[in-house]
Amino acid sequence: MSSPVQMTVEDGIAVIEINNPPVNALSQAVRQGLIEAARAADADPDVKAIVVYGAGRTFIAGADIREFGKPPMPPGLPEVIDEFELVSTPTVAALHGTALGGGLETALGAHYRIALASGRFGLPEVHLGILPGAGGTQRLPRVVPIAKAVEMITGGGMIGAKEALALGLIDEIAEGDDIRAAGIAMARRLVSEGKGVRPLSAEEPNRVTAEEFETMRSMVAKKARGLIAPLNCMKAIEAGMTMPFTEGRQRERELIMELFASPQSGAMIHAFFADREVAKVPELKTGTPRNIAKMGVVGGGTMGAGIATSALLAGLDVTLAEREAEAAERAAATVQSHLAGAVKRGKLKQDAYDAIMGGKFRTTTDYNDFADADLVIEAVFESMEVKKDVFGQLDVICKPGAILASNTSYLNVDEIAAMTNRPEDVIGLHFFSPAHVMRLLEVVVGDKTSDDVVASGFALAKTMKKIAVRSGVCDGFIGNRILNAYAKAINGAVLAGASPYDVDRAMQDFGLAMGLFRVADLAGLDIGWANRKRKADSRDPNEQYAEFADRICELGRFGRKTGRGFYIHDKAKGELPDDEVLEIIARERADKGITPRAISDAEVIDRYMAAMINESAKVVGEGIALRPLDVDITLLNGYGFPRWRGGPLHYADTVGLDKVLNDIKTFAKEDTNFWQPAPLLEQLVADGKTFASLNR
Ligand code: T1G
């Protein structure tokens, strides 16, 4: 098999091409080929300069993540870059696409750097729970100011070519789009100007005072929220400022090895691949996506306006319908403000904004304007009657082959489909609020939904840069069904003796951005209250039911929007515990004959996770979710589950399924009906298997 690295010499310029699709990852073969080519070029007396570039859509996008966790295969990337840097011939890295991680580190090992204007650069290793381990933490601070190096390395974001040029990270932005030619031209100029080698490792690093660095370190620690990689990044950068290069590189190596040994990197690498694997559903093989250029949106409330914005940002033509003209105007204003915000944040260019507002977006009060839409999605009130009425009308108006979608968050998509003569064209597309920000999209597949329509849903998600997860039909689909389960478990912990405030703190210490009760106050307690009232008739009388949230709602306290809910929302002092809430809970315990006991943070989390894992196992076992990774991705991208724990079922594998099953049996003593072990969980424990074994 030919090497993914080829070298040609053209009039004294050695051109090294890396060709390892899809992203030129630094596999063992690439590393081997790169260093052999560099040695050969350096030994060739006719070669006056060396250019390295990537074939295809991008320069190197990093180390080959698929090699992680396997025995190291020499040559190691750090050594390759160190040797590459010390060749006696000037080297040019010619960059396009995304030069990331080990790719940017390789570029920093070159003496000069040129890029296309569309090039982007970053060190995203922290998103994998590790750090730039091939000299990045030592060389980057030798080019950019420490504050910028800290931001790039601990934040893992990308910067564009203009900023890179201003920082000195690249020396030139190439004209046109032929990066190979631009690299060669730059090399020729260097030779004609007599420019020599310029190894960064020989440069002095930028520095800040110890006090300034400690201030940066404490800010990074605050943002890390339990993730240890950013802390090790700071230690590596500190080493770069205080040690000679070789010792700093050694310290960097120790620090990345610590991170590889932590479960956090395993969890985040799992999440990286799961984010991509989740889009590989069976219907993509059997279905053909339909072209979706024109989208109709029914309903201009928060969700409808958010969905319309997301579709417009993806380049679709959007018509949004409301019943009344005033409501339609309000929706248009909401969409306009979302788009203006996107321009301000640099997510939308002004000319693209003008094109949208100049003709790609309109509102209407007449559903007949949907006649030529390729897909119409409704985001109307969560009532089956209302949705059935809407679908009945759309079925008549929309062209044959148009897809009819519902944004319902729990209603039965099969029942909705039955209101039409085209159930095979009906699908659920459950967006998460705010729909133009949240990446998760549950694609809910009805019994009769055709493979083409499923494939179309996933293609639309990709166009809208959403992470689509395939869900079957059940109450709450994947995410909300699991949320309802762990919320019940948390309420059980409160009835047993925990306070909502202890619970929120324990959940935040576990790594969630916000605990359950803070989230509820933010979302509005009335939403959950309406949900519980909707399901009251079908509630299992034998299951424990926590009433304290209903009592709070009956006082008209719906959370932040009314100033009081579980917390008192004080404008000056922020969120404060509410003694009246504690009194309501104490009264309920007394009514239920419960003698409260101290509930440790560990027990709160054990309950929370046991319920989440158990319901997740039911969701997978019933085929609502295709694989355990689909549940992980749902909770990671829609429910704030900490990414460095990999998702509930990856987490379950790390704590051990037998422990989880034992916890469930322990809590079942309080509420047998609720704590019924999932058959799949029992089977895996009996077989000594993991959830991961079901992901392949
Ligand atoms: N290694 C292996 N496979 C990779 C890969 C990588 N680094 N990056 C992408 N892929 C696969 C991906 O799984 C998918 O495979 C396909 O390529 C297309 O990816 C020593 C230790 C580059 C911005 O973290 O951010 O360097 O699903 O769907 O949306 O310091 O991929 O088709 O089979 O994402 O156009 C650091 C990770 C590594 C970059 C392109 N680098 N990749 O996005 O395509 S650690 C990263 C990305 C490191 C050194 C350290 C994105 C992208 P499949 P895609 P995309």
From TrEMBL:
<dbReference type="InterPro" id="IPR029045">
    <property type="entry name" value="ClpP/crotonase-like_dom_sf"/>
</dbReference>
<dbReference type="GO" id="GO:0006635">
    <property type="term" value="P:fatty acid beta-oxidation"/>
</dbReference>
<dbReference type="InterPro" id="IPR036291">
    <property type="entry name" value="NAD(P)-bd_dom_sf"/>
</dbReference>
<protein>
    <submittedName>
        <fullName>3-hydroxyacyl-CoA dehydrogenase</fullName>
    </submittedName>
</protein>
<dbReference type="GO" id="GO:0004300">
    <property type="term" value="F:enoyl-CoA hydratase activity"/>
</dbReference>
<keyword id="KW-0576">Peroxisome</keyword>
<dbReference type="InterPro" id="IPR008927">
    <property type="entry name" value="6-PGluconate_DH-like_C_sf"/>
</dbReference>
<dbReference type="InterPro" id="IPR006108">
    <property type="entry name" value="3HC_DH_C"/>
</dbReference>
<feature type="domain" description="3-hydroxyacyl-CoA dehydrogenase C-terminal">
    <location>
        <begin position="476"/>
        <end position="567"/>
    </location>
</feature>
<keyword id="KW-0442">Lipid degradation</keyword>
<dbReference type="Pfam" id="PF00378">
    <property type="entry name" value="ECH_1"/>
</dbReference>
<keyword id="KW-0520">NAD</keyword>
<keyword id="KW-0456">Lyase</keyword>
<keyword id="KW-0276">Fatty acid metabolism</keyword>
<keyword id="KW-0443">Lipid metabolism</keyword>
<dbReference type="InterPro" id="IPR001753">
    <property type="entry name" value="Enoyl-CoA_hydra/iso"/>
</dbReference>
<dbReference type="Pfam" id="PF02737">
    <property type="entry name" value="3HCDH_N"/>
</dbReference>
<dbReference type="InterPro" id="IPR006176">
    <property type="entry name" value="3-OHacyl-CoA_DH_NAD-bd"/>
</dbReference>
<comment type="similarity">
    <text>Belongs to the enoyl-CoA hydratase/isomerase family.</text>
</comment>
<dbReference type="GO" id="GO:0016853">
    <property type="term" value="F:isomerase activity"/>
</dbReference>
<dbReference type="GO" id="GO:0070403">
    <property type="term" value="F:NAD+ binding"/>
</dbReference>
<dbReference type="GO" id="GO:0003857">
    <property type="term" value="F:(3S)-3-hydroxyacyl-CoA dehydrogenase (NAD+) activity"/>
</dbReference>
<keyword id="KW-0560">Oxidoreductase</keyword>
<comment type="similarity">
    <text>In the N-terminal section; belongs to the enoyl-CoA hydratase/isomerase family.</text>
</comment>
<dbReference type="Pfam" id="PF00725">
    <property type="entry name" value="3HCDH"/>
</dbReference>
<keyword id="KW-0511">Multifunctional enzyme</keyword>
<keyword id="KW-0413">Isomerase</keyword>
<feature type="domain" description="3-hydroxyacyl-CoA dehydrogenase C-terminal">
    <location>
        <begin position="604"/>
        <end position="689"/>
    </location>
</feature>
<comment type="subunit">
    <text>Monomer.</text>
</comment>
<comment type="pathway">
    <text>Lipid metabolism; fatty acid beta-oxidation.</text>
</comment>
<feature type="domain" description="3-hydroxyacyl-CoA dehydrogenase NAD binding">
    <location>
        <begin position="295"/>
        <end position="470"/>
    </location>
</feature>
<dbReference type="InterPro" id="IPR018376">
    <property type="entry name" value="Enoyl-CoA_hyd/isom_CS"/>
</dbReference>
